[in-house]
Structure formats: structure tokens, C-alpha cells
Amino acid sequence: MANSIETGGLPGRRLRERFPLAALIIERLLLSIVLLIAVSILIFGGLQALPGDFASTYLGQSATPEAVANIRDQLGLNQPVVTRYFEWLGGAVRGDFGTSWASQNSVSEQIANRLGNSLFLAGFAAIIAVPLAVGLGMLSVHFRNRLPDKIINVISLAAISLPEFFIGYLLIMFFAVKWGVATFPATVFDGMDFLDRLKAIALPTATLVLVVLAHMMRMTRAAILSVMSSAYMETAELKGLSAFRAIVKHAAPNALAPIINVVALNLAYLVVGVVVVEVVFVYPGMGQYMVDAVTVRDMPVVQACGLIFAAVYILLNMVADILAIVANPRLRHPR
């Protein structure tokens, strides 16, 4: 009896020892699902705890108690909070976020268009920022403690210090107002020509790139510098390998795990952090849609946007963890 109890966990332990990579990936997947459920509870509960009432806001100050009660009954606000949460969560799992209280349109249909715009903006910013950050990070290591390295560090510190809305307003003032070489507001619509769309998002893209570029570049530099002090890097240099080639061929691949982590975290910020940038540039994305919904207390829209932003952030963090695990040779080739 005692032996069976002691060996009860052996199959799972043996599986973990035999397939550590798969076990860690499954753990990350399960943890992400649990975290997303917890976040959904916080989003729903937090919005329910906010003061005020949509029915009173929608009907105005002259609304009668009977009219307010009717609106609350139509929206299902008289049901218990737990019942409403599980109905909302069940619909969200099926891709149905309900109906907007303000416009009476399907939230899912409205989000589909807006989410595409936000992903297009964030994706184009990532295409520019990621290779530029990695390249500047390697360049900074190559010229460390020299003039190019100092210039890159000063510019990156300045970019980190400035909030995104301030950077956005500066770009608008110079490129749109004074020089007239960029468009403002950043208006896009269905059927718009691809080049016209790129021109419309030039300023918000530049803002996002400047916001995330500095952090990714500095973390890339730090990760590569930590590898440069390794013995095999000294051996590579003694064999006659040029400094920059040693960085590209040996240091950067071995610093891949922390670089992947910081890139994924900044990609998550690009998607979630577009809220401020979209408001500044009046860009028709998820961020602008969410802010507009908050002003009229349109809770189904706010809940849906909050859950989608949280899901994207958790997903990209999970991908970062999994890629970092896969990049670890000790887990890929266990002894």
C-alpha cells in the first residue's frame, strides 16, 4: 500500500524527466489558460464595481425610475453578477461578445474590423522595429564605449524617457503641421489602397517604433555583452575571427533566449499599447473603439476589448516562454 502511494507520481515524473521540453510547454499552455480566466474575472468584476449606471447615462437626467428599470431589465442587468459573468464568458469562448448597448450592433462584427486595423498598425511597426533593434544592438556592442555606442545609448535613453503621446504630438507638429509631409488624422477604411494605407499610418507607426525600439535595442545589447565575456568568444577571436563576425555568428545566437523574450514582450506592448497612439492619431482601431465605449459606459464593448487585449498579451508572453524553452539546448537535448 505504502509502495503504491510512493510510486503514484512516478509515471508523471518519468514523463517529465524523459520529455522535459514537452512538459514545460504544456505547463505554459495550462498556466496561460488559468491566467486568462483569472483576468476575465477581474475585467468583468472590476467593470461591475465601477460607480454609475449605463441606463441612467443613456436616458439622461430626466429619465424616470420606470424607464431606467425597463432598460436594466432589457439589458439583463437585474440578473445576478455570477450568472451574467458565465453567460458573457460562454459567449466569448464562442466568439460572441454580445450586442453593443450604445449602437445595438454586434460587438464581434465591430471588433473584427477594428482589430484588423490595430494588428496592421502594430504588425507594420514590428516589421520595422525588431530587425532595427537587433541590428543596432549588435552595432552598439561592436563599437562599445566608442562614439557610435554612446550616440545610440543617448538616443535610446531619450526615447525611453518620453511618453508615447508626447512623441506622437511632436511628430504631428513637425511632420504634419509644419512640413506637411505626413497625413493627420490617420484615417483608414475598407478598400483603401495599400500604399495610401501605409502613408496614413506613417506617423503612428513611427511613434510605436520609437517607443519600443530603445528598450529592445538596450536589452539586445545587454544580452550580447553578457555572452561576449564567455571563454568560447575569446577562443573565436584568438582564431582570427573578426569582432563583428564573432558577434553575428556566435554571440547573437547564444543570446537568443533573452532577445526573444524582450522582443515578444515588446510585440505584446505594440498590440496592447496602441490605445494611446490610436487616440492621439484618431486611428480607427481597437484602442479608439474602447475609449469611445468607456465614455458612454458601453460595458459589452469595454469587456470585449479588455479581454482581447489581455488574451493577446498573455498569448505573446506564452510564445516568448515557449521559444525561450525551445532555444535552450539543455532542454532540447536532455541527457
Short summary:
With 335 residues, the protein is mostly helical. It has helices at residues 2-6, 10-18, 20-49, 54-59, 65-75, 81-93, 107-142, 147-161, 164-178, 194-200, 202-228, 231-238, 243-254, 256-272, 274-280, 286-295, 299-326, 329-332.
Please explain how this structure is put together.
By secondary structure, this protein is mainly alpha-helical. Helices cover 78% and strands 0% of the residues. Helix 15 packs across helix 16. It is globular. Mean pLDDT is 78; it is low at 1-8.
Separation of the first and last Cα atoms? 33 Å
What is the strand tally? 0
Largest sheet: number of strands, sense, barrel closure:
none
Question: Given the helix and strand composition, which structural class is it?
Answer: mainly alpha
Computed Rg: 25 Å
Shape: globular
Q: Residue ranges: pLDDT <50 for 5 or more in a row?
A: 1-8
Features:
mainly alpha; globular; 335 residues; disordered N terminus
List the helices and strands and how they pair.
Blueprint: H1 2-6, H2 10-18, H3 20-49, H4 54-59, H5 65-75, H6 81-93, H7 107-142, H8 147-161, H9 164-178, H10 194-200, H11 202-228, H12 231-238, H13 243-254, H14 256-272, H15 274-280, H16 286-295, H17 299-326, H18 329-332
